[in-house]
Amino acid sequence: MTEDFKIIDKEDIALLKFPKTDVLNDIDEIKIRISEINRALSLGNLEHSKLKIFFEDSESKKVVDTTVWAVTDKNVILKQGVMIPIHRIYKLF
Fold it and tell me: What is this structure's pTM?
């Protein structure tokens, strides 16, 4: 999966633009994404573990290796308040 995604630094995410559409169409994939986000939040808060977040902005698919600090109903929040919209995330692991 990684070969389709360009590695990006967490600090550069704030400069990206995100469309309003969801990258996932399948309801089961969306449910899996939510459980992966909840798992990532637990790992981030309890163990400060990093993981890869595969997502897409308005230009291309990207991946970042980071720790999830918080989650809202619309965004995954990383250190320094950097946010990725949940609807633009493909996978976390």
Answer: 0.94
